Amino acid sequence: MVERGVDGAQEDHRGPGGGGIGEPIGTAVVLVRLYDGNFQFGSAHEDGSDLRFIAADDKTPLKFHFERYDNPVSEAYAWVKVPDVKPGAPHHLLALFGNAGEPAAAGAADAKTTYDPDTLLAWHFSETGAPPADATGQGHNAEGAGLPVTSSVIAGGLRLTGLNGLTLPAAPDLVWIGGSPATVSLWIKPTTLTANAALLSRRENDKSFVLGVDNGTPYVEIDGQRAAATAPLEVNAWKHLAVTAEGAKTTLWVDGAVAATLAAGLPTLNAPFVLGKDKAADATPSMNFRLPKCAPRGLAEARRAQSGRWRTGEEARGPAARTRPPRTAAKARSPSISR
Question: What is the rounded average pLDDT of the residues 234-251?
Fold first, then answer.
């Protein structure tokens, strides 16, 4: 990233390129962390309203929004919509700031325009004492607030104990059609290891989907059939879990590597999603995890999500669920969540 003030002074904060991406992924919403080592908070507006992200051509404004902008502690997290992300090459951005006369409509932060139309849901968990709100404008807000965590793998997060799960209400655009492609992903930090701890569940009659951790071992379960990883997770360590489904095959990923496969596709479901709890189970373990983005998409998005090496720390992206509607169903989309 290159930052430039209103006086034209420029500083280069470019890091190593490529990000472990193994194939072209097209347009992607990328996390940019600003801190006093790469951004002059004292020269920008106190609320960051003058900040703009520009493409490497020095003229194309990029859509973005802040998950957090904290001037007193000199830290901000911005999600930037970056076009044409390719493997093995750096992708440079310009951060412009310091122009008091910058018109509000000229590239100002806007969460709704950061996401493409297929993104049905984005939860940042930046609320305090309030249910997570959908940043995309689709209106898929959570029921229940959870316990906020001020410092998570990315900005804020939630602590879910198994007794305080969040519910995503059912909606016409969140319907799963049997065998449709989907991706669900999230960052978790288990603080205890117990049996059959559900992270994300969905049940309707005899149909079900559960992503969970059983005594530390991640698993995916569809209609009672389970596939589990071979190695358990560490306690108090952030890990990235993902599930991709296509046709009659479902794959479980841990930190970007295949951990297990299941010879079953998604069932047809039109029930609410429950995050951090399974209504069919007694309880789940105490666990910190954050879900910065929930967006069902199609298989292309699933492959995009797994195309790079997953990393913890400040560069980590958080959970996402992505799904695409089947081609024969014009409006059926999937959960957690995007089209």
Answer: 90
